[in-house]
Design brief:
By secondary structure, the protein is an alpha/beta fold. It folds into three domains: about 80 residues, Response regulator (Rossmann fold, 3-Layer(aba) Sandwich), CATH 3.40.50; about 140 residues, Rossmann fold (3-Layer(aba) Sandwich), CATH 3.40.50.2300; about 100 residues, Arc Repressor Mutant, subunit A (Orthogonal Bundle). About 50% of the residues lie in helices and about 15% in strands.
Length: about 350
């Protein structure tokens, strides 16, 4: 089957349309172009990954749950103890605004506000050589330390470069998290970038399956929607910090995270911090907003989720590896935290790497 590549965002040319017709194309999966109607008008099944418009008439859509991505990024920064928050996106793209909305709403629900970067109106000022200076000045004006979400990993990289221009340390002064978890961008950035991962691989399989049904006449040619959901935060160096002034609480959290694969109890944390249990519990609840026990449980469940996503180990082996006394215990705790069973989570999010 011939492959056809088109630069995202531009118009498809008449010559390219003729090439597709000549090949006898019977189905298309594509990222949105400026003249979608030209391809949709060919009369073959089309599945579009939206990018420019929220909705594409006459085609099936691959839609990203952008608001949920923003919420997950906010939750990650809140867990790190930040009290100051910012968002940097692209003003002209709906998906960036949706991620901003999700981020701001979750931060507001926690009792904080979000400072939002506004791009310059002038297209000349948006050229990177010019905008880098504007962005650097905005970053310098922010209260520190601060947790910042960029709408996409490419934008995170822009923020890192602007931080270097401004002499701002990442993550000590500004912790940065992006979206979509592009391994190439995130791993090669300096420092490596944290990002919200999405179920892109799963959506690709779903799109192929739907296209097969469309071409066989088993489904309607328009209206179906494939949802791409956030799966987890891939934490890297750009958010490897705890924005908490209290040394004892920082020690407690670091101990919990370092021993996340062990069946530790609250008393183990008390011994590690060398302060009384009552004092630790009161300080932890006041500063972090949850109990030491809840922090242990949540941290260990994240380890379970990571193993479900990234390994083929059976649930019983995962339970044994992490020191759970039984599969029933791990299943009960997991459902409480994630709202679904272990198997449902693996089926939904496993195999994304």
């Amino acid at each position: 089957m011939p492959a056809f590549y088109l630069d995202p965002g531009r118009k498809i040319r008449e010559k390219e349309l003729h090439s597709l017709e000549k090949w006898g194309v019977t189905g298309i999966i594509m990222r949105e172009v400026k003249n979608n109607e030209e391809l949709i008008g060919m009369g073959v099944p089309v599945i579009v990954s939206t990018y420019i418009h929220q909705k594409v008439e006459g085609a099936c859509e691959i839609y990203v749950n952008n608001k949920a991505i923003g919420e997950m990024a906010a939750e990650h920064l809140l867990r790190l103890g930040f009290k100051n928050f910012a968002f940097c996106g692209f003003d002209d793209f709906f998906w960036s605004k949706e991620r901003e909305q999700g981020f701001k709403e979750r931060i507001k629900a926690a009792g904080f506000q979000t400072i939002v970067y506004k791009q310059p109106k002038s297209q000349v000022k948006r050229l990177w050589d010019n905008e880098q200076v504007i962005l650097a000045d905005w970053l310098k004006s922010l209260p520190k330390p601060i947790g910042l979400m960029a709408c996409i990993d490419e934008r995170s990289q822009d923020v890192i470069e602007a931080c270097k221009t401004a002499g701002i340390h990442v993550p000590e002064e500004i912790a940065i998290i992006g979206g979509d978890n592009d391994d190439l961008i995130c791993d090669l950035a300096n420092p490596p970038l944290s990002s919200v991962a999405v179920s892109g691989v799963r959506a690709g399989y779903q799109a192929a399956e739907l296209l097969d049904k469309l071409m066989a006449g088993k489904e309607e040619l328009a209206g179906q929607k494939i949802i791409v959901e956030p799966t987890h935060v891939e934490a890297r160096q750009s958010t490897d910090i705890l924005a908490i002034d209290d040394r004892e609480i920082v020690m407690a959290i670091r101990f919990i995270r370092q021993h996340a694969r062990e069946p530790i109890q609250v008393n183990d944390v008390v011994e590690a911090t060398r302060i009384g249990r009552r004092r630790l519990e009161k300080k932890f609840q006041r500063i972090v907003g949850r109990s030491v026990h809840d922090e242990i449980k949540q941290t260990r469940i994240e380890e379970v989720a990571k193993m479900l996503r990234n390994t083929n180990l059976s649930i019983s082996v995962i339970a044994m590896t992490l020191g759970y006394s039984s599969v029933n215990n791990i299943a009960r705790y997991f459902r409480q935290e994630k709202g679904m069973s272990l198997l449902a989570y693996r089926n939904l999010y496993g195999g994304e790497k």
